[in-house]
Design goal:
By secondary structure, chain A is mainly alpha-helical. Helices cover 63% and strands 6% of the residues of chain A. In chain A, helix 1 packs across helix 3, helix 1 crosses helix 4 and helix 2 crosses helix 3. Chain C is built from 10 helices and 2 strands; from the N terminus they run ααααααβααααβ. The chains are: A mainly alpha, B alpha/beta, C mainly alpha.
Chain lengths: 126, 307, 218
């Protein structure tokens, strides 16, 4: 699940881990009451500082996505449907933001971008 | 004790060329501190000073709750050391080495030693002299971890090892950190490995500490900026300019056409600074740790006269 | 800690100690060969004394060799690893050095015991001509002293840096060997004067090596 964690990216590692879990919860990939890997396991798997994993889990707990039960582990919380769709909307907008930044970098105008999106979605639909 | 290691104006000179100059190092307790620096920058010498293998010529060294080298025997009982070169007697078997070390450390964890033997797939009856490079490295790590120290000092622990062994070693190290609130000091060239696990980093070059910051600050604070129409000399900027080159990479005269700036301590809000000087900021490019490290070194070695 | 260091000491020096013990045990017996026959005439007594004296040269050599070799194996691994292992152990350097000295002296007990038992047996089994007595214990004690002095000397040198240790060891080894032979063989060497000077400057330690080593004497 965490294959795309990139230590070279400018996004801090804990933020990347938290983001991945957030999207998994929002999309239903991680079901409510599912157990997240222990700090030890995840840190060793990803070869990152355990403190990084702890920071990610804590942030998710503060946002209400997971619940840390000391001694038992970290578990996914049930998200209200409204919350879930808000989260997905937020992610969609983040994707669009990245797309716009990239477009600007390459000198692609918004108009050209929109045409390209329509063309691609058209292809997807067929 | 908020810092596991603290040096104050540490000085050491060896021969005419090499000198550590008034080093002030602070390793927070419980952190994983990466010690970065090119060959010959003084990393190994600093580590030797921290462990009382050398006597400082100036300054003070505080390690854990004592001073080096005066409190060395007491402090060394709590410090696990993995040196650059294997230093163990080659006529010992792995098992004999374990037994030898166990006799000296009250906190020796025999159970962990057995677990690590299994995990590292080491044959305890093998002679240390007959082990491969990777296996020797694993033995050194095993001995340091089984000692259950509060401080682990590793000098290039995975240098020259194949990726599989490196992962095994990192895995064991991270497991240890998960279980105990230990402080780890790792000096390494393998910047990408440090990038993943260190929360603090100190950069050494030519005997001087260039910077000592949280890892995130170093990684995120150093950027390449694509700038246009900037004046030849700028006043004080909210960030530190490490270098300016013409966009095509030439190191010659700075023109008003496109330039690349390498800056430090950057924050996104600083983009407005460019409006203030009548220039435009076209792009902000992230640098990974290795690139950041290289830029820092270049800047510190550049001849005076750069703005 | 002592046990751990003793174990490593034993590991490194067991071959030397084993050979030394056998040699030390055999030496008195060999030197008294032929004394087990009854009825020796005074002439034979003189021959016996000559034999004992000739063989006796080997005692100080054996003691010096043992001292040298045990000292070398004690410090060779430390030098190889550039002292790092020992220096990062949680005990003061002087304590470590003391422990190493003690364990080295302990393993030397083997050859010393060998000489003691060999001498006792040799004297007990021999039929001595009238007027001659055996001094097995005196010999054994002197051997023990010589071995420990040699060990202490070479130990002190080896505990320093490798290069100076090698040089000094070579010089001292040569001096001891030449000194022993010169005093036993009563040779007039050009070195004799220098050796005399060395003797008078260091009267105590090296004196134990010089002179005759007589298991049997008047």
């Amino acid at each position: 699940m965490f294959e795309r964690i990139d230590p070279r990216s400018s996004t801090p590692l804990y933020a990347q881990i938290a983001a991945r879990i957030r999207s998994a919860v929002a999309s239903g990939e991680l079901r409510p009451a599912a157990a997240l890997p222990s700090v030890r396991e995840l840190a060793a798997d990803l070869r990152v500082n355990p403190a990084t994993v702890v920071q990610a889990y804590r942030e998710l707990e503060a946002e209400g996505f997971v619940e840390i039960r000391h001694g038992a582990g970290t578990f996914v919380r049930e998200l209200a449907p409204a919350r879930r769709s808000r989260e997905r909307a937020r992610q969609a907008r983040a994707i669009v933001q990245r797309m716009l930044t990239e477009a600007r970098r390459h000198g692609v105008s918004v108009r050209e971008l929109r045409d390209a999106i329509d063309a691609e979605i058209g292809v997807e639909a067929t | 004790m908020s810092h596991a290691i603290e040096t104050e104006s540490l000085e050491y000179r060896a021969g005419k060329q090499f000198a550590l100059q008034r080093l002030n190092i602070h390793v927070p307790a419980g952190s994983i501190y990466g010690f970065l620096g090119p060959n010959g920058s003084g990393k190994t010498t600093t580590i030797r000073l921290l462990l009382a293998l050398l006597r400082p010529q100036g300054g003070r060294i505080r390690v854990l709750d004592g001073e080096m080298p005066d409190d060395a025997p007491r402090l060394l009982a709590r410090i696990g050391f993995v040196p650059e070169q294997p230093h163990l007697d080659v006529t010992f078997t792995v098992r004999e080495m374990l037994q030898f070390q166990a006799a000296f450390y009250r906190t020796w964890d025999a159970r962990r030693a057995e677990d690590l033997l299994r995990q590292f797939q080491l044959d305890d009856h093998q002679l240390i002299g007959r082990l491969s490079k990777g296996q020797k490295a694993k033995v050194l790590i095993l001995l340091a971890l089984a000692q259950r120290g509060d401080l682990l000092v590793l000098d290039e622990p995975t240098d020259g090892l194949d990726p599989v062994v490196r992962r095994d070693i990192l895995f064991a190290l991270l497991e240890y950190v998960s279980q105990y609130k230990a402080t780890i000091l790792i000096s390494s060239h393998l910047v990408h490995e440090l990038e993943r696990i260190c929360d603090w980093v100190g950069v050494l070059d030519d005997g001087r500490l260039l910077t000592e910051t949280p890892m995130a600050t170093l990684k995120n604070g150093i950027k390449r900026l694509r700038v246009r129409d900037a004046p030849a000399s700028i006043g004080t900027a909210p960030f530190v300019v490490l270098a300016r080159h013409a966009a095509n990479g030439g190191g010659g005269a700075v023109t008003t056409a496109g330039e690349t700036w390498v800056v430090r301590d950057w924050a996104p809000e600083m983009a407005s600074y460019f409006d203030g000087i009548g220039a435009s900021l076209d792009d902000v490019i992230d640098l990974d740790l290795e690139d950041s490290f290289v830029e820092l070194l270049r800047a510190s070695r550049a001849p005076a006269g750069r703005s | 800690m002592f046990r751990a260091i003793l174990y490593s000491q034993w590991k490194w020096s067991r071959l030397i100690v084993a050979v030394g013990t056998i040699a030390g045990f055999a030496l008195p017996l060999v030197s008294l060969q032929g004394a087990a026959r009854a009825d020796r005439s005074p002439l034979e007594a003189e021959a016996l004394l000559h034999a004992v004296q000739a063989w006796g040269v080997l005692y100080p050599l054996l003691a010096a060799a043992l001292g040298l070799l045990v000292a070398i194996v004690t410090w060779a691994p430390d030098h190889r690893g550039r002292h790092i292992h020992a220096l990062t152990l949680p005990l003061a350097r002087w304590r470590y050095v003391l422990l190493r000295f003690a364990t080295g002296a302990t393993v030397l007990a083997g050859p010393i015991l060998g000489v003691t038992i060999g001498a006792l047996i040799a004297v007990a089994a021999a039929t001595l001509p009238p007027g001659l007595h055996g001094y097995p214990l005196a010999l054994a004690v002197r051997f023990a002293l010589a071995a420990l002095v040699a060990y202490a000397l070479f130990f002190a040198v080896s505990a320093g840096t490798a290069r100076t240790a090698g040089i000094i060891l070579g010089v001292i080894g040569a001096i001891v060997v030449v000194q022993v032979f010169a005093s036993v063989a009563n040779l007039e060497l050009n070195l004799a004067d220098h050796l005399q000077m060395v003797l008078t400057n260091w009267p105590g330690p090296l004196a134990v090596f010089t002179g005759r080593w007589m298991l049997i004497d008047v």
